[in-house]
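Below is one record:
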Amino acid sequence: MNYNQNKKIAQITSQTLIIGVDIAKFKHVARAQDFRGMEFGSPCYFENTKEGFEHFLTWISELKREQAMEKVMVGMEPTGHYWFNLAQILKENEIKFVAVNPLHVKKSKELDDNSPTKNDVKDAKVIA
């Protein structure tokens, strides 16, 4: 394991809210968990609009407060160009985010439930 990978891993602590977002053309879905994979709240569905992003940011703030988390890390599949707007909003709000390889998501989901079928809610959890 190299130094760079250790630095990346060290960013996730017990005080980090981890959010996985499955990007779609019109409506995205997000799920939140801690570093152990314990899920928080219900999935958040939001549109690729200013109002949708405001709803998403509010959802994050509420979960952060409820779970007493200090940091947030968002993971997302870079689907087409649909993720650009969300990335910009996260950057403006100083929320760290990472792009997750769609092939890794597909393979992980197949390992977890032996199901290659598309399911946005499951994908969001795998991404997180």
User: Anything to note?
Assistant: The mean pLDDT is 84. The longest strand covers residues 39-47.
